[in-house]
Amino acid sequence: MPSPQQSSILPTYARSSLTFERGEGAWLVTAEGRRVLDFGAGIAVNALGHAHPHLVEALTSQAQKLWHLSNLYQNPDGERLAKRLTEATFADLVFFSNSGAEALEASIKMARKYHSANGQPERFRIITFEGAFHGRTLATIAAGGQKKYLEGFGPKVEGFDQVPFGDDEALKAAIGPETGAILIEPVQGEGGIRPVPTERLRALRQLCDERGMLLIFDEVQTGVGRTGKLFAYEWAGIAPDIMAVAKGIGGGFPMGACLATAEAAKGMTAGTHGTTFGGNPLAMAVGNAVLDVVLAPGFLEHVQQQGLLLKQRLAELKDRHPAVIADVRGQGLMIGIKTHIPNTELAKAAENEDLLLITAGDNVVRLLPPLVIAEAEVSAAIDRIDRACQTLEEEMRQPMKGAAE
Question: Alpha carbon of 399 to those of 69, 251, 340, 396: distances in Å?
Answer without folding.
Answer: 63, 45, 17, 7
